Automatic annotation (TrEMBL):
Protein name: Exonuclease domain-containing protein
Cited InterPro entries: REXO1/3/4-like (IPR047021), Ribonucl_H (IPR013520), RNaseH-like_sf (IPR012337), RNaseH_sf (IPR036397)
Residue intervals of the Exonuclease domain: 167-383
GO MF term set: exonuclease activity; nucleic acid binding
Signal peptide span: none
Entry superkingdom: Eukaryota
Example GO BP: ribosomal large subunit assembly
Listed Basic and acidic residues bias regions: 283-306, 316-329
Known function: Exoribonuclease involved in ribosome biosynthesis. Involved in the processing of ITS1, the internal transcribed spacer localized between the 18S and 5.8S rRNAs.
Keywords, ordered alphabetically: Exonuclease, Hydrolase, Nuclease, rRNA processing
Region (Disordered): 283-339
UniProt source species: Cercophora newfieldiana
Amino acid sequence: MPSSKSDTVVPLSSGISAIEPTKEYLAQLNSLVLPLEALSRAGFIVKELTKEQLDSRKRCKTCGVRSEYSSVIMEIRKALPSQGGTDDGNAKAVEAKAEKTVVHRCKRHTGAYIKSTKKWSCCGKQLNSPPCWGQKNHDQPVGQDEALQKRWQYHPTPTNPQRSHRLAVALDCEMGTAIDSETELIRVTVIDYFTGEKLVDSLVFPDIEMRHFNTRFSGVTRKDMTLAYKQHRCFLGGAAARAAVFKYVGPETIVVAHSANGDLGSLRWIHHKVVDTHILESERRKKEEAEKEKENVDNNVKDVKTEQTTASMGKRQGESEGKQDEPQKKPKVRYHPEGMSLKALTMKHLGREIQAAVKAGHDSFEDALASRDLLHYHITNFL
């Protein structure tokens, strides 16, 4: 666990090697930055959310289910002539499809869940039993705009340069589960990519009530968070965590992470210079598979030509030629049998075990360092 919410840079730890930022290395690193279109295709948020997108996060004030139309339904409705759209097709059919897609039924348990009996007080049923109360329509939320903006709006990296900004950093975040079942940031770690210095490493006291802290994966317990809050050793909310990150990250800083979309999403952060080691490994394996497939096809073609040449020389004279055996179809296998998790790749490429203490959960500093070292391995071995 991080010991404090320190604003000072922690010196290079023993056993962590520095990387020299030569011109050649920086050029290689920049060549791996995902283009904006690729970021968008991978699910990254690349611009601030619209009002419609924020509205889609609204929840019924009675049962807590998202009660607004999904973005798909919004687009269907916008296309209707009645809404100023240009869809001249069967408008009634489209409207009916939109209505059917929206769930109007509001359901919930009216009582409390009693831990001692493991049952609901309202109906006496088990935790996962269907809700015992319902009404036809959801109660439309009112006055949530400010809360939605604060919790869900994404923020671009500030453009003003600072001397503290680094050339590149490695990032890892841990998330827990909020009372409404959404993921929520609870820890953030940022290290300098080239020096290995720990720049930010702190718990983040959530802006919303938490259901649990996913301790098995996050390594953070409710007790850890409560103690850090009482001792003023944590950031108070996502905005404070972002501000701490922005102290070291400018618009030209390269951010390195494994499955970076989740980390940036937890910080509600828009950044356009990202190297994702998960995507990088996936693309490398696809290229490797394509090269093997091409090699197999070329070998099959050579074998067929050899057999045809042998047959034409009369090796099987007087015998009717049999049909060539059709090449066997390649069996379908799971695309990444070796695993694509940070833990699996760190062991495969670096021979290093991380996330070893199952009950203790992950360590975001250890994971950020692993992402950094995986990228360095890729640059030095595959470029």
